[in-house]
Design brief:
There is one protein chain. The chain is about 35% helix and about 25% strand. It is α+β, with helices and mostly antiparallel strands and about 300 residues long. It has one domain: Jelly Rolls, CATH 2.60.120. A 7-stranded mixed sheet has the order 1-2-10-7-12-5-4. Helix 1 links the parallel strand 1 and strand 2. The longest helix is centred in the middle third of the chain and has 27 residues. The mean pLDDT is about 95.
């Protein structure tokens, strides 16, 4: 069993209806799918790949050797207790936001300019994907984006758009530590440019962990908790995890198009008279709950959040 692969270039051609149907099915049955021919230039993706790897080598690798997960694993190996590290991830990560560019890594030539360009392309792809979801859910065009951008003035987006650049370095005892613990994503639409050589990302499907197969230059799409709420459960946010590996430094660049922290999120009024299975809440309040419950079952989060 492999996660669906969809040719996004066909969304504007004769096979539009078939492509819409493929995306709807992937959202309903998986919450994860891969897009090929998505419109982000290949040359740009190659630059992102190279510069992210260069950045890790020159600015991150040494620090990871003395990081918390490395120290904790070494302590565990000294004890020789046979235990596993449960509350830590074997991951190096930094986050790129529009307003924190002065904090972006600065010693890798060309990284900043390239990532600004890449993030703009991904943001455009996120908008297209949300419009496809609108259409498939029978919502007015722009509904999801508008819901995420509550309080938008003069076309200035208020939605949260962040990019998490992660590396999962080689781990001497991968069976004792998680690359990234199993979780669902809190927000809206996630667009992942993952390593095309090393695997490790898995999604939970019908009780079984399935590899998200590395595929050169594909963009992996997954839906977060807020899409589950807006779709009234028709689309589910999927549990996923990353396995630590003994060899290979796996790269993962995930961009999150999430609601503004002030946005009110609830099931969209699609079918008349249909029962609403989720509460309406402010996204910032949901994030307060998620911060403490990210790696725990998701259903209690929806019950714990303050409702409107």
């Amino acid at each position: 069993m492999a996660i669906p692969v969809i040719d996004f270039s066909k969304i504007n051609g004769e096979e539009r209806e078939k492509t819409l149907s493929e995306i709807a099915k992937a959202c309903e049955e998986w919450g994860f799918f891969q897009l090929v021919n998505h419109g982000i230039p290949l040359e740009l993706l190659n630059k992102v790949k190279k510069l992210a790897s260069d950045c890790y080598k020159t600015e991150r690798e040494e620090a990871f050797k003395t990081s918390t997960p490395v120290k904790l694993l070494n302590e565990l190996l000294e004890k020789n207790s046979g235990e596993k590290l449960e509350n830590v991830d074997w991951e190096d990560v930094f986050t790129l936001l529009d307003h924190n560019q002065n904090e972006w890594p600065s010693n890798t030539s060309g990284l900043k300019e390239t990532m600004v360009e890449y993030r703009e392309e991904v943001r455009k792809l996120a908008s297209k994907m949300m419009e496809v979801m609108d259409e498939n859910l029978g919502l007015p065009k722009g509904y999801i984006k508008k819901a995420f951008n509550e309080g938008m003035e003069d076309g200035e987006e208020t939605a949260f758009f962040g990019t998490k650049v992660s590396h999962y370095p080689p781990c001497p005892r991968p069976e004792l530590v998680n690359g990234l613990r199993a979780h669902t994503d809190a927000g809206g639409v996630v667009l992942l440019f993952q390593d095309d050589e090393y695997d490790g990302l898995q999604v939970l499907k019908d009780g079984e962990w399935i590899d998200v197969q590395p595929m050169p230059n594909a963009i992996v799409i997954n839906t977060g908790d807020q899409i589950e709420v807006l779709s009234n459960g028709r689309y589910k946010s999927a549990w996923h995890r990353v396995l630590a590996r003994e060899e290979g430094n796996r790269r993962s660049i995930a961009s999150f198009y999430n609601p503004s922290y002030k946005a009110a999120i609830g099931p969209a009024a699609a079918e008349e008279g249909s029962e609403k299975k989720y509460p309406k809440f402010v996204f910032g309040d949901y994030m307060d709950v998620y911060a403490n419950q990210k790696f725990m079952p998701k259903e209690p989060r929806f019950l714990a959040v303050k409702t409107l």
